[in-house]
Structures are given as structure tokens and as C-alpha cells.
Design a protein that fits this description.
7-stranded mixed β-sheet
Length: 248
């Protein structure tokens, strides 16, 4: 088994050697690359999974657990992600793909309509994008992404309103005062300890129990890329667009 974020050629070499492979989406490859890995794994008779590390943050795991229990069905999800400006311009920032995956995972269903807006600034390599997802039976999600911050820490928050209550996780509350002389700094407490171990353990457990994770994993990422395609179309036409089942 190979775990990590190597290049496409390395993953293909492991799959050709009939080794199970787990790729962590710290940076999301293109849809074509991922579909190629799934096809190679099926041909070799092994499992390949593409894991979104954001799903395995303790706060996100707790929200998911509560939605499966006392909170009930989610109706409204709000997600912020603000990051420093990248050195090179991109099409749709890959972090939005991870946010879309996280949203679909928590909502537990696929949206049927997307409306996206982008505020552009001349000379900036960053993006400021808002994505509104409409779900069947009235559910909705609003994601905003901004990677025009100065170099340094980013900011994330997540809030979900469900049938019987609400849950939230916010970097504002996850900071500690550090007194280093002068004005104190607000240092973010990271929740990534054990994150990669949790991803690997889930994959190992599936292999030991002969549970096929790949079919569900592939379908989930097809949904993510279908929604991402709708985001692009909405940005291009300046209005909401529908997502059909055949868009997968």
C-alpha cells in the first residue's frame, strides 16, 4: 500500500504493481488524472482511494457524527475559507474542490442547482468566489473562498443548521494568546494531529475487512467534479445553472 501525495506517475507505478494506493488530496489533481487512477486500480484488481483530509479534522468528524445523531438532517451549511494569495494564478482554486467534497459529505446529498459569483481585481493572482448550492427539498449551502490575504495564517469556519439543532467550528475560538513581548499574538491551535493516521487507518481497516471503498469514493469525487463544473458554468454566464444526474 502506498499513502501520500506523490506525482501521478508514482501512483500509476504502484497500481501497475498491483499495490493498493491511497492519495491524500492536499492538492487536488484534475478529474482526468483521478479517473485514470480509478481505471488503473480496477484493471489491476486493487483499491485506490482519494481522500479529502478536511473530512478527518476532529471538528468536522464531530459535526458529521452529530448530524448522523441528535441534530438530524442538515438544512443550511455555511463555510468560509480565507487564505494567503498564491504566487501563480489558477482557474478554480483546488481548495474549493475540497470544500465542495466536505459540503456534499455533510449534507449527505447532491445539489441540483448552483449559483456562483466572483469579484475580480486587476493584477491579483487570487480569487474571491461565493458559491451557493441548492439541494432538493429546500436545503442550501453557501461557500465563500478568498485567497487574497497577505502571507500568514488563513481562516476557516463551518456552521450547520439541522432539523434539531446546529453545530459550528470556527478558527476564532480556536486560538490561544501568546505573550512574547509587546502586544500578545493570537496563535491558532491546529487540529491536524493524527489526521493522516486516521485517513490511513480507515483505508487499512477497509482492506482488512475486504470492504470496497473505491466504488463509493469514485462516485463521491464524480459528484464533486460535476458540481465544480457547474460552478465554472455559473461564473461564465452570471446566473444559476442546474446540475443533472447525467452530469456525473
Amino acid at each position: 500500500m502506498h499513502v501520500g501525495s506523490p506525482g501521478s506517475e508514482v501512483i500509476e507505478q504502484h497500481l501497475a504493481a498491483r499495490k493498493h494506493a491511497l492519495l491524500v488530496a492536499e492538492v487536488c489533481p484534475t478529474r482526468e488524472v483521478i479517473e485514470g487512477h480509478f481505471a488503473s486500480a480496477r484493471e489491476a484488481g486493487v483499491q485506490f482511494c482519494f481522500a479529502n483530509p478536511d473530512r478527518y479534522l476532529p471538528s468536522r468528524q464531530l459535526v458529521r457524527k452529530q448530524l448522523s445523531g441528535p441534530l438530524g438532517e442538515p438544512g443550511l451549511l455555511r463555510l468560509h475559507r480565507w487564505e494567503p494569495t498564491p504566487p501563480q494564478p489558477t482557474d478554480i482554486p483546488e481548495a474549493i474542490l475540497r470544500d465542495l467534497d466536505l459540503t456534499l459529505w455533510l449534507m449527505g446529498r447532491r445539489p441540483n442547482r448552483v449559483y456562483s459569483l466572483e469579484q475580480k481585481h486587476a493584477g491579483s493572482t487570487g480569487h474571491c468566489v461565493q458559491v451557493h448550492l441548492g439541494f432538493p427539498n429546500g436545503g442550501m449551502a453557501l461557500l465563500d473562498f478568498n485567497n487574497r490575504l497577505p502571507a500568514g495564517d488563513g481562516y476557516q469556519s463551518l456552521s450547520v443548521i439541522a432539523a434539531s439543532g446546529a453545530a459550528y467550528a470556527d478558527d476564532h475560538q480556536n486560538r490561544q494568546l501568546a505573550f512574547r513581548g509587546g502586544s500578545p499574538d493570537a496563535v491558532r491551535t491546529e487540529e491536524r494531529s493524527g489526521q493522516l493516521a486516521a485517513i490511513a487507518q480507515e483505508f487499512v481497516d477497509a482492506l482488512r475487512s475486504s470492504h470496497n471503498l473505491m466504488t463509493t469514493n469514485a462516485a463521491n469525487w464524480r459528484d464533486v467534479f460535476a458540481v465544480a463544473g457547474a460552478v465554472k458554468r455559473s461564473l461564465a454566464v452570471g446566473q444559476s445553472v442546474a446540475i443533472a444526474q447525467e452530469d456525473r
